[in-house]
Amino acid sequence: MTDTLYIGKVPVRRTAALAPMAGVADRAYRLMCKKYGAAYVVSEMVSAKGICYSDRKTAELCTVTDEERPMGIQLFGSEPDFMAEAVKIVLEYRPDIIDINMGCPVPKVVNTGAGSALMKDVRLAESITAAAVKAAGDVPVTVKIRSGWNSGQINAAEMAKAAESAGAAAVAVHGRTRDQFYSGEADISVIGSVKEAVGIPVIGNGDVSDADSCIRMYRETGCDLVMIGRGSYGNPFVFDEIAARLRGADYAPPSLEEKMNVMLEHIRLIISLSEKNEEMAMHEARKHAAWYMNGYYGSAKFRGRCYQLSSYSEAVGLAEEFIALQRSRGIE
Question: What is the C-alpha radius of gyration for the chain, rounded to an integer number of angstroms?
Answer without folding.
Answer: 20
